[in-house]
Amino acid sequence: MEVRERLDRRIAELEPEMVGTLCDLVALPAVSPQDGGLGEGAKAAYLEKKVLDLGLPPCERYDAPDPEAPGGVRPNLVVRVPGTGAGRLWFFSHMDVVPEGDRSLWTQDPFVAQVRDGRVYGRGANDNGQELVASLYALKALRDLDLPPAFEICLAFVADEELGSRYGICHLLDRHPELFSPQDLVLVPDGGNEEGSFIEIAEKTPFWLEVTVEGKQVHGSRPDLGKNACRGANELSVALDRALHRAFPETDPLFEPPVSTFEPTRRLPNVANVNTIPGREVFCFDCRLLPSVHPDAVEGVVREEIRRLEETTGLRVTYRFVQKGDPAPPTDAVAPVVERLSRAVKDVLGKTPRVGGIGGGTCAAFFRVQGIPAAVWAQESDTAHMPEEYTDISHLVHEARVFARMMRDL
Ligand SMILES: [Zn+2]
């Protein structure tokens, strides 16, 4: 029998076990301590044992210190299997999950998985348990069939993705750079669509700005005695909107929309009554920059508009970044990781996926910033972070088949 068929048959046999493992993972919530949870400790301990039970080499552990976590650390695990040829292929999935959200919108306990209608329901089943299990059992299928991978395979199960990856991927990249090489192939299976028809190779840079305008609060009848922060914030918001759009008109057809976006968003409440002139106003912009637009250049335009407002009104303006990313160069559409992934997806799903960019942001950007090409792909329903989150079992199986092909370089 051909290798593909043997792999697919083995993965089909493993399906009940994959579903069982996914259900076990749902029961180990791994909500970040910063979100009021217990972190990834229990899930990591389960996975360390599971990996051994599956006959795979023991996990390497890369703990990130976090005083807020039970035990003081956030665990990151790497399962490493040598290959027959040179090179290394990474699969990054994250162990942490977001909290359940509004409990009344769930018809079940979010942390007790339910299997019905070909789906596994539960928090984290989709994001990112599905891909974690798919990568684990792709490797297990190869092992069961005594098929060595074509290159070294590393499965990484990381912490803290939902809150910025400081204790997860960033910890690995910053504190254990020896783990990576620019020649590595990196797949982050943490985003995709129902058809599995999209490979993400680029992200816009997040540039989230919070601006505070300060004046002098007075009675509504005596504006002459105060300095109206509300008017200043209105003027500045409109001026910023115009200036940013004018200064950065670049387009890039890789993205949808094909431009940098500059959107006024949150406005904090100011005064509670009509007849008080506000002395303080806070507003935000959600900007997402094309990789060719440097965040420092955008900040320059922001500073110039602020200076102008301060000069003409006497108001005081400060700003801070809620998020200011580093520009991440797009992964080449014909990079080896994209090419291999594309081939495997076509083989399993029958269609060549299209490549493109998104508004951001996944942790693939951290690799791209370091010059390591990374691709993001998954076949998944759009249920991450939602109540009644679920995973389609057929997607789970397809992903395992895609990953197994990549591991064997079929
Ligand atoms: Zn995720």
Automatic annotation (TrEMBL):
The transmembrane residues are none
What this protein needs as a cofactor is: Zn(2+); Co(2+)
InterPro entries per the record?
Answer: ArgE/DapE, Bact_exopeptidase_dim_dom, Peptidase_M20, Peptidase_M20_dimer, Peptidase_M20A
Signal peptide coordinates: none
Task: Provide the alphabetized UniProt keywords.
Answer: Cobalt, Hydrolase, Metal-binding, Zinc
Instruction: Provide a Gene Ontology MF annotation, just one.
Output: hydrolase activity
Domain Peptidase M20 dimerisation, by residue range, is: 202-308
**NCBIfam families documented for this protein:** DapE-ArgE, PRK13983.1
UniProt protein name: Acetylornithine deacetylase or succinyl-diaminopimelate desuccinylase
Q: Which organism is it from?
A: Aminomonas paucivorans DSM 12260
State the organism's lineage.
Bacteria, Thermotogati, Synergistota, Synergistia, Synergistales
